[in-house]
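Trying the structure run again after the queue cleared.
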Amino acid sequence: MSAAIDPEMHDLRGRPVIVGAGVAGLMTALLAPEPVVLVSRGPLGDFSSSILAQGGLAASLATDDSPELHCADTLAAGGGLCDERAVRRVVEAAPEAIDRLARLGVAFDSATDGSLRLGLEAAHSRRRIVHAAGDATGRELVRALSAAVRATPSITVMEGWDVRRLLVEDGVIAGLLVAGPAGAALLATGRIVLATGGVGGLFPHTTNPLGSFGQGLALAARAGAVIADPEFVQFHPTALASGTGGALPLISEAVRGEGATLVDENGDRFLAGTPGAELAPRDVVARAVWRHRAAGHGTFLDGRHSLGASFERRFPTIDRLCREAGIDPAHQPIPVRPAAHYHMGGIAVDAEGRSTVPGLWACGEVARTGLHGANRLASNSLTEAMVSAGHVAAGIAAAAPREGISPRAAVLPPAPDVSAVRPVVARALGIVRDGETLSHAIAMLTPLATGGGAAADPALVALMMAVAARRREESRGAHFRADFPGQAVQARPSLLTLDQAFSAAADPAIQFPLARSA
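Done. Tokens:
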């Protein structure tokens, strides 16, 4: 169906539009120095991964810590693909981001002396993780930021609207096509910020909402934006192994930070001989859990000795989730399995969050800033969202609004359906990959991505991931190739456009560029 400009939206013409109401979108809206529109698929925060986040925000706040140490840990985890300038920009601004959130009403956990309580997570050399409500940091952030957004008159909130396409004229953003309770509509604007989250919904087991299939990547790619490092997906090693699939509750890394160990059905601690053991980088732990399960073992997180009766007080959300699954974590090991958790790749952006399409910015998980590299350091993502939101808000304010924008009517694509894509992604883009399976996946995904049906956008995102994964003939960070288990000498990010992905899908000999690492 075609869409016309809704008369009720006419007054919003030309305002910057922020798509997505997780913490990245909420904070960008709050920091914008002019009236903006915030578009959310449902009530603020309800459809975001942010509200599910149990981990906290990493910041060098302790007397034995520093931005230099935080930077070094981030670079070490990133497998050679971090942009050091981006890393320094985030870690140096992290303490102020915590202060800003506290001023906005976020109730962070405190120690007995009144200072912020700092937790330890994998691959961090110091205690620097700030939490709220024990293991419900995301929910507390969304609560406080949503309340602040609703109290800000300059922010127009459109709840219950789904963005289906970005409109581009002469290579420049001209508006967006949305579907909502009253049907389809066009919203004219020359400034759009995508803050739509990750890709976990493409996988049969994920800690993300099932609707997080990479919508922002599909929107940006169809608008002509460059996508960077889409092959890098972080699998969290300890999702609660309940049910047969779908969205799985997360068992936060903070539980391992407090001494819980990974054991099998015999009580054997199968990571004991691994450097870092349970607090090794996430890709190492996730592969170890995957291999142990593949060998026929059960895998469990055992906090009985380290936490015991204090489990409920320290991790109330996880305790409730376990008990709902019939497990008492104070007295029983928790069955766990890896699940798709975080996307290190995303829309290629500069230091101010600008994409390669004029008028389009990205913030949060949907953006590839260079902070995470090949393997995100735990709890850096919420920090990145808070810091990047300030840069993006300043960027859209500095960009002159375009006058007289009148985007042409467009055809409304169908609502996306990921069900045909998940089985392909499960086989080809899991924790361990190989070229033959990736090539088979590309052959299956290409007709779906070009077909224009409900599977088109999810298939397009999965296709770009698979093409980049096949092109990367090495194992680095979260990307592990069974047929190329070694690491290349030089770390080089992958960059590709939609046209390049389709060309490489049709002819594997075509080599899209690998950019030099910054």
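The first strand starts at residue 2 and ends at 3. Worth checking whether this holds up in the mutant runs.
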